[in-house]
Amino acid sequence: MSEPLKGNSPETEALLRHAGQDDPDVLGDLFSRHTDRLKRMVRLRMDRRLQGRVDVADVLQESFLEALKCFPEYQRKPTMSFFVWLRCITSRQLLDIHRRHLGAKARDARREISIDQEAFPEATSAALAAQLLGCLTSPTEAAVRAERRARLQVALENMDPIDREILALRHFEQLSNVEAAEVLGIQNSAASKRHLRALQRLRQILKAV
Fold first, then answer.
1. In this predicted structure, what is the pLDDT of residue 57?
2. Both 92 and 171 in a single domain?
3. Averaged pLDDT, groups of 10, the chain, 209 residues long
């Protein structure tokens, strides 16, 4: 492989070198190391209409098979850190599943965000509102939760889509700033500025709600 990418840990780089020596089990080991992070992404971005119809494990299984097929090309020319590469593959598989199960209904522009001319499932305002309310209220506050969720969703909908994305990536998917910048195709400094701006906007929204 080429020079180590800054988003890869030393352990990942070592395993990638072994994978380059035709060890068939290494990619499975690499994938399993990131399974929990990929699950968080899928749960956040899977269309709510597919809950109960599509299992997260099935999405990851399809993603692993696709990674096996694409891995030789990644070895030849890695253009992003390994985890971000896996995340891109998983995002594409999730988008394909949306289109396969929902057909034309999946082409709602609000359900996808275009980064560098490629569409990925969006972390919608509804999904973010549900995540935030899970931290702010207890399950027994059903009426309060419903009212707050509606108000919070409307407020989040008015945010710049990229600002919503940076919040989703940093706080709900728990990506580092470097990884979030890679996903969004922007400089690290730009990702930091967007994150700060999005946090300030979110504080205003939460205060109002």
1. 95
2. no
3. 64 81 76 95 90 91 94 89 95 92 61 49 79 64 71 83 90 93 92 93 81
Number of domains in the chain: 2
d(CA 44, CA 201): 21
Domain around 61: 1-122
Kindly compute the dihedral angle of the four CA atoms of residues 118, 2, 169, 60, in this order, to the nearest 10 degrees: 70
What is the predicted pLDDT for the residue at 122? Answer: 76
Q: Could you say which of 62, 97, 122 is where a domain stops?
A: 122
Three-state SS annotation for 6-67: CCCCHHHHHHHHHHCCCCCCHHHHHHHHCHHHHHHHHHHHCCHHHCCCCCHHHHHHHHHHHH
Q: Which of 97, 122, 147 is the last residue of a domain?
A: 122
Neighbouring CB atoms inside 10 A of 91's CB total: 21
pLDDT on residue 180: 94
CA 148 to chain centre: 25
Considering the domain architecture, whether residues 115 and 145 belong to the same structural domain is answered as: no
Q: Phi and psi for 112 in degrees, rounded to 5?
A: -135, 150
Residue 71: both structure tokens together:
């891995």
